[in-house]
Fold these 2 entries.
Entry 1:
Amino acid sequence: MATPTTPTWVLFAVSKDASLLGAITEKHAGHRTHYNVTGFNPVIGQPVHGIEAGHHVVRIESSAPVMLEPHKPDAHVVVFRGVTQHLHYTNKEDKEKLAVESRTEMEASPSTTAVIIPIRKSAGWWALTQDQRQAFFHKTKSSEGHTNIGHPFAAGVYRKLYHSRYTGSALPYDFVTYFEFPADHADDFGHLLSNLRDVSRNPEWESVELEFEIRMVKVKND
Ligand code: HEM
C-alpha cells in the first residue's frame, strides 16, 4: 500500500446527515474528500452498526491527528481513524515492483468506486515475532501469500493502508484499508477479496477476526 515517508493521519466520518457532516468537518485544514455510501457488507466479527446505503462520508487526511468540530452526543456519526506507517513486511524487490505498477489515486466521479475495510487481527497474530508475521506475506511451498495474491490486482486497484494501533486510542480495529477502482472493475475487486480471504492461498487471513466493507462512490474533493 502507498507509503509516504511522513505519516498521513486520516479520519473517515460517516453519517446520514450531510449538513451535520459538513459542519463538523468543514473547518479542518486537511485534505477533504466526499463520498456516498452504496452498500455495507459484514464479513467476520461484530461490525459497527448504523451505516447503510445513502449515508455520506467525509475523509480528512492531514499531517497531524484529525479532530472534529464538537457535535451533539446524540448525533449519529461513525468515525474511523488511522495513520500511515513505514512498510513492515515488504522486501526491496516487491517494493520496487509495486511502486512501478500500482494504480494512483483516482479522480472523483460517478464511476469511481471507493471501499473502506476496517480489519482487526487476533491476539495470536500480534504475539508472533516479526519474522513469523513477515513470512505470511510471501510465497511458500503451500501458499501464495498476501503480496503475490495482491500483485496482479495492483494496477487496477488503488490502495492505501492506515494503521490504527498507533493512533493513541484503543480502537476495535487494527487497520483501516482503503481502495478505489473504476466501477466496471468491481468483479476483479471481488476476486481479489475472495483470493485474500481463502486461507488455503493466504493463511494470514486465519488471523482476521473483524472485517467489514463500506462501499461508496467518490463524489468530490474540496
Ligand atoms: C490491490 C492488491 C493488494 C496488494 C498489492 C497488497 C499488498 C500489500 C502489501 C505488500 C502489504 C505489506 C505492507 C507492509 O510491508 O507493511 C499489505 C498489507 C496489508 N494489506 Fe494488502 N494488498 C492488496 C490488497 C489488499 C486488500 C483487498 C486488503 C483488505 C481486504 C488488504 C489488506 C491489507 C492489510 C490489513 C495489511 C496490513 C497487514 C499487517 O500489517 O498485518 N490488502 N498489502
Entry 2:
Amino acid sequence: MSGINEANIILGICGGIAAYKSPYIVRGLKERGADVRVVFSPNAHKFVTKTTLQAVSGHPVRDNLWDENAEASMGHIELAKWANMILIAPATANSISKIANGAADDLLTTLLLATEAPVFVTPSMNQRMYLHPSTQSNLVKLRDLGYFTIGPSDGSQACGDEGPGRMTEPNEIIDHIARHCSTEIPQNLEGVNVMVTAGPTRERLDPVRYITNDSSGKQGLAIANAAKSKGATVTLIAGPNVEPTNPGIFRIDVESAIEMNNAVQERLKETDLFIGVAAVADYRPANFLKEKIKRHGNNSLTNLELTENPDVIANVAKVKNRPIIVGFAAETNDPLKHAREKRIRKGIDAIIVNDVSDPSIGFNSTENAATLIHEGGEIAFAKQSKISLGAELIDQLENIFSLSKRQKSLRQTSHA
Ligand SMILES: Cc1cc2nc3c(=O)[nH]c(=O)nc-3n(C[C@H](O)[C@H](O)[C@H](O)COP(=O)(O)O)c2cc1C
C-alpha cells in the first residue's frame, strides 16, 4: 500500500452515539480512493442502519460471526486478510474493554485477532466512562499491544456533559489515517531528535485550586505525530489533559511550568529541534498552601499574589549548543507584529503565530490557521485541521532548517 488510495479499510462501528457520524468517515475515506467495508459491533445497529452504511460504502455490511453464507468459506478470516487497515470509530467503552482483553465473541473482535493490519481505535463515550480507571487501563493496554488510538476530543457531549470522550471529528480521523498509510512520506527526519511541548500548565494555589488556560495540546500533539511519521525520534513534554500519545513517541507528563521547564532542560542535550507549543502560564501563585484555603478568614483568595514562572523557551535559548528553537505565539491583537517582536526578544529561530481571538481556530478547536515567521521570511498557512497543519509545519521546518541534512555536529557549530 503506498497511500490511502490503495487502502482496503475495514471500518468497525460500535454502539455509541457518535455512530451517526460514521457514514461521513466512509465517504471521506472513499473520496480519497480507499475501498471501505463496514463491520458492525453487536450493538451498532441500534444507532445506525446497515442500509445507510451499505449505500455509502458500496458493500454489504457484516455484523454476524455466524453468517452461514459468509462463513462457508471462513469469511471472517478472508475479511481479516483483505484489510490492510482497520479503523474502529466510534469505539465504545465496552468494545475497547473486549479488545484490550483479547475477546473474540463477535465478528469485529474476532477480526482483530485474525488481522496483521494496523488497527486504529477512536474512543467515543461519556466523559465519566472515559475517565473511569477501567477504561483508562484498557486504553493503556491497547497501546501496549500496538493498537493506535485517535483522540478522543474534549468538549460538549450528547448527554449534556462537558469533558473528554467526544469522538474526534471525521475529517481529522481521515487526515490521521491518510498520513499513517502513506508510505510516500519520506523518512527525511530519521536520526533527528525533536522535542515538542504541548498543552497548558496548571499552577496550584492549594490542593484543589489552580490557574490554567484553554490550551488542549492538540496542535502540539499533531506536530509531534507529524515529526514521528517522517522518521524523527520524538519526545513530547505534555501538560495536563493532553490526549493520549501513539506508540513510538516518548512522552513525559508534567503539571506546572516549573516541571515543564525542568523536563525540557533535562533532555535538551540530545535535541536537534525544539518546538515549544505549550501554553505555559507566565505566572503562578507566589505561595502554595498545603491545605485547602478556607473561604472565610483568609485573604489569600481575594489578594492572590503571583510570581513569575520560568520562560521555558527563553531558557532553551540560553543553553550552550542549543537546538534549533521554534516557539508559538497565541495572540489576540496584531498577531504578526507581536510575534515578530517575540521571536527577536526570545532569541529564537522561528515563531508560529495564531490568532486566538477567532474562536473557530486556536485553543480547544480542532482547526487552526497560522503564520510561520523566521529570519528568512514568513509563510501563512490557511485554516485547516490541526493534524494537517502539523504536517505542513514540519515539512516547512524541515526545508527552512535543512533538518534532513543537518548532522548534530553541524548544529552545534552553527549555534555555539
Ligand atoms: C443512547 C445510548 C447512547 C450510548 N452511547 C455510548 C457511547 O457514546 N459510548 C459508549 O461507550 N457507550 C455508549 N452507550 C452504551 C453502549 O451502547 C453499550 O455499552 C453497548 O453494550 C456497547 O456495545 P458494543 O460495544 O457492542 O457496540 C450508549 C447507550 C445508549 C443507550
